[in-house]
Write a structure and sequence with these properties.
Blueprint (H helix, E strand, L loop, with lengths): L16 E7 L4 H16 L3 E7 L5 H6 L2 E7 L6 H8 L2 H6 L6 E8 L6 H14 L3 E2 L16 E5 L4 H16 L1
Parallel strand pairs: 1-2, 1-3, 3-4, 4-5, 4-6
């Protein structure tokens, strides 16, 4: 369960908030978005980012985090390796360990209509199944060319707009 944060001086100092930025690195674009998301978390001034590839992350990392930013390149949906990692966390789904934690998603792909939102929705589906509180991006003019309501995206080469969307998502998640 998420820990209750209290105002300094009431019951002691604030505990630091940690956001796990977890991603499956199949291309450099997703890593660029992950780094930008972590920068957004850190720039919020209220949270620290724990940036990890799925191959390096453990269930303990997920449990210790106050929130989750989950990233995966679009491979007609999430990659098999990320799917396996998420499936290995099944006992957390059953015991409610992640319930109430805020979470958000980001993805990268090669084409505008290559299934980016499907990839985001597959990650969001897992978050909802775990009882997590899903955080998206509110509409903004930059979404005409970059991003999605469901999370941050990039198509082809990562642009500054893509990185800005990812930073905004990280900052928004940390604030929540």
């Amino acid at each position: 369960m998420p820990q209750l944060r209290v105002h300094p001086g009431l019951l002691g100092p604030l505990m630091p908030v940690t956001i796990l930025v977890l991603y499956d690195r199949k291309n450099s674009a997703i890593e660029d978005l992950a780094r930008a998301a972590a920068e957004g978390v850190e720039s919020s001034g209220v949270a620290a980012a724990n940036l990890k590839r799925a191959t390096e992350a453990s269930q303990a990392d997920l449990l210790a985090a106050d929130g989750l930013l989950l990233g995966c390149p679009n491979w007609s949906g999430i990659t098999g390796s990320l799917k396996s990692w998420l499936d290995e966390q099944g006992d957390l789904w059953e015991d409610g360990s992640l319930a109430g934690k805020p979470a958000a998603a980001f993805t990268s792909g090669s084409g505008q209509h290559s299934g980016l939102e499907m990839t985001l929705l597959q990650m969001v589906h897992w978050m909802l199944a775990c009882g997590m509180v899903v955080v998206g991006l509110p509409w903004g003019e930059t979404m005409r060319g970059s991003g999605s309501y469901y999370g941050a995206t990039s198509v082809g080469a990562v642009t500054e707009e893509d990185l800005a969307q990812s930073r905004a998502l990280g900052s928004r998640l940390a604030a929540i």
